[in-house]
TrEMBL record:
One of its GO terms (biological process) is aerobic respiration. Keywords: Membrane, Transmembrane, Transmembrane helix. It comes from Photobacterium swingsii. InterPro entries: Cyt_c_oxase-like_su1_sf, Cyt_C_Oxase_1, NorB_cytochrome_c-like. This is Nitric-oxide reductase large subunit. GO terms for cellular component: membrane.
Length: 756
């Protein structure tokens, strides 16, 4: 059996087995998700909340921005508190104060330490005891706890309204005045907060840990690391070391194949782009425009960590509150990178097949219009929702779904899926002849096409969670989109495209590219598919998720640990022939992708992947550190590299190809990203890490830490990196403007392409 055939069989086995495990665990999550009670009542039978209150509260949370204003179970934004940890800490404080006044006629802080310890023991007994009856659907709480719940309901009603006394707190949390307009909706929001906190402190039936595996860390209420957290973290580290060793051994045994005879001239230069390929210029212009807008919004969002309602004294939050700017900032990251990659797919398909289908240009133009409508429509809907112009049902459909990276209203989400399916149809009809060509690149072409199918279809996983879906299940499907769609299949797509481009340029043998792509895909997906579960350790899932997620997320890092080989090999290609200088900066962006794969995705990713690490630092700025290093460093740099490669093929002259602008853009973007990550985001995360260990998770997300002198200084230290990064974006935009507006308007006649 040849290596290629063995790799193909291994790839099929990995995919089938991994998805079988993922779906099986999804079924288990569904069965063991924290129940939503029909009624929450006191011992005397008084109704505190109903199921409708909790479900409406979840819709209210979605409408205000959801994950973009604080977090639930550790998932969401970083300036406002984690509302789960915040509720639990405040409930414990109020409960202890009430009990101390009742038993000792004194405040809790004034009684003896042994008396405090006794009350804290009773607190844990009251809060951790599971009094939910699955037969009746009724959850019973003590009278004291019901009293505290009412006090908390009043507190959150004031906080999310416009009570002047709460204005300093809202500013510290980067909340706009009147975050939730309706008093009824504010009460419902408290019901949802209660349910999330109840799941985080209540022990599962017949177990000694909570529905969220004892997250968040708060020793006062008995939330400390479980044995599964510790054991599987150690196992993940051991497996990482074993995996890196095995892969290093494999690399050492590889035979070095001689390079092909290099072409005397650029094989792509002078080939006339087809009509549909020339129409792709607008995709790349759009991507760069969205990128610039994302940079601006990122700077505003970061500044809100210092001035929660102002931008250098300007009351910007009245128009663009933090929850809006962060929504747009994270969503535009997906939009601009996806636009660049979709444009690449539409460019590479006819280049591979040498075939231009009828009406392909029309389809490309229609798809671009559809994408623009979805981008602008979803952004407008999100603004209207957060400004409370919609009721909670309309907000769900047209406004804000409240879940990070799939924030856009359900209608826009469906339209985006339709656009992806149109893209898949366009790619399919153009690439179809290449799928039947019996040449050396057939395996990689099929891997590329399979990744296109996955990109078109897997975004639809987000539609499996609905308006009232249990949050544990909603998170499960959300991470199918964020991890599998973005981090999985786009990665496979990019690996295949780069290999095909290098083969087409005559720099790599087809046989070598086939083996490398198939092997890399198998290795990556082995950890990447099941590794999705590392996002779900504490989202109301059973401990089996910790076991599977920790082990396979460690395997995700294995190929990244040796990514330097790829970086060096790619870097060498820039000087292999004289004409390769035309592709120098595209290749340099591919090298940057390899660097950030190691640093952003690998090193900073593994920092938060082991269960015991994530237990303490989920939702701190350590998460933002990984997100910036991986999303922009890997997918953003790769998107720019792919666009430049396509534009090199679209440009029939070197006259306006300005390498100086690309040089300044490359170094500004990378040095700026390094600055914001290592001068600000990571140090803030480390400060918070110490705060969690010393005081509990709630404290690390409190204004005492977020707005401490040290943390605010570290936030200001992000400014140089932000400015440098922004300058890099401007240089890139200037390059595109000079190239596209000066030369690509001079359209040339179609000329059939030569297939690979």
């Amino acid at each position: 059996m040849t290596k290629q055939k063995f790799s193909l069989i291994a790839l099929v086995i990995v995919c089938v087995t991994s998805f079988a495990i993922l779906l099986s665990l999804g079924s288990e999550i569904y069965r063991q998700a924290p129940p939503i009670p029909d009624r929450v009542v006191t011992l005397s039978g008084e109704v505190v909340f109903t199921k409708e209150d909790i479900q409406n509260g979840q819709l209210v949370w979605r409408s205000m921005g959801g994950h973009q204003l604080g977090s639930i179970w550790g998932h969401g934004a970083y300036v406002a508190p984690d509302w789960t940890a915040d509720w639990l800490h405040r409930e414990a404080e109020m409960w202890l104060e009430s009990a101390a006044q009742y038993q000792f006629s004194s405040s809790f802080s004034a009684i003896e330490s042994y008396q405090q310890a006794g009350l804290e023991s009773r607190l844990r007994e009251d809060m951790r005891l599971n009094q939910y009856d699955p037969e009746t659907g009724v959850l019973v709480v003590s009278e004291r706890r019901a009293q505290v719940i009412r006090q908390l309901q009043a507190y959150y009603a004031r906080l999310f309204g416009d009570d002047p006394a709460m204005q300093p707190t809202r500013e510290a949390y980067a909340m706009k005045e009147g975050t939730i307009a309706s008093a009824e909706n504010r009460e419902s929001l408290s019901a949802f907060f209660f349910w999330g906190a109840w799941a985080a402190v209540t022990e599962r039936p017949n177990e000694n840990y909570t529905y969220t595996n004892n997250w968040p860390y708060d020793p006062q209420i008995g939330n400390t690391p479980t044995s599964s957290n510790i054991v599987w973290s150690i196992m993940s580290v051991v497996l990482l070391i074993a995996g890196v060793g095995a892969l290093a051994w494999y690399h050492a045994t590889l035979k070095v194949h001689p390079l092909p005879k290099l072409p005397a001239s650029d094989p792509l230069f002078g080939v006339k782009p087809t009509s549909s390929q020339r129409a792709l210029g607008k995709y790349f212009i759009t991507a760069v425009g969205l990128f610039l807008l994302q940079i601006v919004l990122g700077g505003i969002t970061a500044h809100y960590a210092v001035e929660g309602q102002n931008f250098y004294g300007i009351p910007l939050a009245e128009i663009l509150p933090y929850s809006v700017t962060r929504t747009w900032h994270t969503q535009l990251a997906v939009f601009w990178i996806a636009t660049a990659w979709l444009g690449t797919g539409l460019y590479i398909a006819p280049a591979l097949s040498g075939y231009e289908p009828k009406f392909q240009r029309l389809g490309v133009n229609v798809l671009w219009v559809a994408l623009v409508i979805v981008v602008l429509g979803s952004m407008a809907g999100e603004w209207l929702a957060i400004q409370q112009y919609f009721d909670i049902d309309t907000s769900y459909w047209l406004g804000h779904q409240g879940q990070e990276y799939i924030d856009l209203g359900r209608i826009w989400q469906i339209l985006l899926l339709a656009g992806l399916l149109i893209w898949l149809a366009l790619v399919t009809r153009a690439i179809k002849p290449a799928l039947t060509h019996n040449n050396d690149m057939k395996p990689v072409v099929w891997v590329l096409y399979a990744s296109c199918v996955a990109i078109g279809l897997f975004y639809g996983a987000g539609l499996f969670q609905g308006k009232h879906t249990n949050l544990a299940i909603a998170e499960y499907w959300r991470w199918w989109v964020v991890h599998l769609w973005v981090e999985g299949f786009f990665e496979t797509f990019a690996t295949s495209v780069i290999a095909l481009m290098f083969v087409r340029l005559g720099l790599v043998r087809a046989q070598s590219a086939n083996s490398a792509v198939l092997f890399a895909t198998v290795v990556f997906l082995t950890g990447g598919l099941i590794g999705t579960l590392h996002h779900l350790y504490f989202t109301g899932t059973p401990t089996s998720v910790i076991a599977w997620g920790s082990v396979f997320s460690a395997l995700e890092v294995v190929p990244l640990a040796l990514i330097g080989f790829e970086a060096v090999e790619t870097y060498r290609m820039r000087k292999m022939t004289s004409w390769m200088s035309r592709y120098k900066w595209a290749i340099m962006f591919f090298v940057a992708t390899a660097f950030w794969n190691l640093v952003g995705a690998g090193m900073l990713g593994f920092l938060i992947n082991p269960p015991i690490a994530l237990y303490y630092i989920q939702g701190l700025n350590t998460t933002a550190t990984h997100a910036h290093g991986a999303f922009m460093g890997v997918y953003g740099m790769l998107g720019i590299g792919l666009m430049l490669t396509c534009l090199r093929g679209l440009s029939t002259t070197t006259a306006v190809w300005d390498d100086k602008l690309l040089k300044w853009s490359f170094w500004s973007l990378n040095l700026g990203l390094l600055g914001m990550v290592f001068m600000s985001l990571l140090p803030v995360g480390i400060v918070q890490f110490f705060s969690v260990i010393d005081h509990g998770y709630w404290y690390a997300r409190s204004p005492e830490v977020i707005h401490s002198e040290l943390v605010e200084t570290l936030v200001w230290l992000r400014v140089p990196g932000d400015i440098l990064f922004g300058i890099g974006g401007i240089f890139l935009a200037l390059f595109f403007a000079k190239l596209l507006f000066s030369k690509l308007k001079q359209s040339s006649g179609d000329k059939p392409l030569t297939a690979v």
